[in-house]
Amino acid sequence: MDSPPLVLRRLSLVFMLVFSLFTIACAEREDFATYAHKGFSVEYPTSWKFKRDQDFSLDGSREVIFDLGEVSFVAFYFNDRLTFSEFTKQYIDNVYLKDATGSAKLISQTPFDVAGRKGLDFQVTAKFIGTLNTRVITVDVSQNGESVFLVAATADEDGLDIQPLLKHVVSSIRIDK
Known about the structure:
This protein has 3 helices and 10 strands.
């Protein structure tokens, strides 16, 4: 038969294990809200802050943007002029690789799949006041003949890992013409 101290130690271990699992489950849970306007809807984490929905942008005929931190954001670009590959190349070149200092560099580019949607994952770095390392994920979320491209840009300084949330966000997108 176990002595009382051994029983107490086992109970303490079980309690710590259950508490740890509960804490991890709560930490991974994210609350979502729905943004819907002009035939476009998406569920997004409530930690994201809606910035704008405008009918004209340099990167498409419409853009919907959410801020994630000081520098980080998620944007949806409606673009009927370019394919996903053309849009992504132009976006990365114009927004991240053309800088006044000439210090921007593409570190890596890898295929990326989110909820069965084709995407690309880029690591970009540039020197401004300091070094700015940015992860840029682009995903083709087009539906119903409407070309829409998601761009998620997260800077190291914001300390965000957006990847676990993207599956829910991308799966929730609805586009009605």
